[in-house]
């Protein structure tokens, strides 16, 4: 298997963070509005936004559990030596 490690593009990463923060801000503003004032396309966007954030949170939970398990295994290996 041939794997090449590439450096992350800092500008792309910056724009991704800006996009994520702007979505968060827009979500917080829209969520404070009464439902009658929010047009249907924005409601659909809110649904997709919430689904995506839930999926990201689930992925973070899985990653942290794997990391915790590997750290506990390393700790037990160190304590056995």
Task: Kindly summarize this structure in a few lines.
The chain is mainly alpha-helical and 81 residues long. It has two helices and no strands.
Structural class: mainly alpha
* Poorly predicted residue ranges: none
Q: Kindly state the mean pLDDT as a whole number?
A: 88
C-alpha geometry: elongated
Number of helices, where a helix is a run of at least 4 consecutive DSSP H or I residues: 2
How many strand elements? 0
Question: What distance separates the N and C termini?
Answer: 34 Å
Order of helices and strands: HH
Give the DSSP E fraction (strand runs of 2 or more residues). under 5%
Tell me about the largest β-sheet. Answer: none
Rg (CA only): 20 Å
Helicity, as a percent range: over 70%
Describe the model.
This protein has helices at residues 10-31, 40-80. The protein has two helices and no strands. The mean pLDDT is 88. With 81 residues, it is mostly helical.
Features:
single chain; 81 residues; mainly alpha; 2 helices; 0% strand; elongated
